[in-house]
Amino acid sequence: MQAEQEDRFQEFVRARWSHLVRTAYLLTGDVHHAEDLTQTALAKAYRSWRRISRADNPEAYVRRMLVSCNSDRFRKRRVTESLTAAPPETAGRDENAGRVEERGSLLAGLARLPARQRAVVVLRYWEDLSEAEVAEVLGCSTGTVKSQASKGLAKLRAYPGLYTGRTVSGGRGGSR
Length: 176
Description:
The protein is an all-alpha fold. The chain is built from eight helices and no strands.
């Protein structure tokens, strides 16, 4: 790789690392797996960086790699996740304790979703991608995105301790 391309890749990694790890964490439910997944996707991106950097949206390309690498992880090892009935006790209570408990419930609920539904829910409602963008990332139709999102949200709503009667909007920034 030429020095200029190498510099652009390193700049991309510095700028997007935490965002990519956060997305990977939502896909995997484990910080260590998320970091490994991000490194794997970025290693693959590095090999093709010249082509990827010419794309309109290199981050979307790498995000697609994250989802693919996560799917590959399950295909190769058939990893089983061990869930606990409740998150571990916290040392103290503060004003954000409820949010932490909600986050723990959300992550546990996400971990129970099939990989495809989890990817759709994370990309659609956490990453705030449109249905068309999610379909492009996952390589499927928008109809599949809609049905997987509907099924995933229904399972999350039924998850104990997670659904509090609030309605889910089209993402953090509103619907697209």
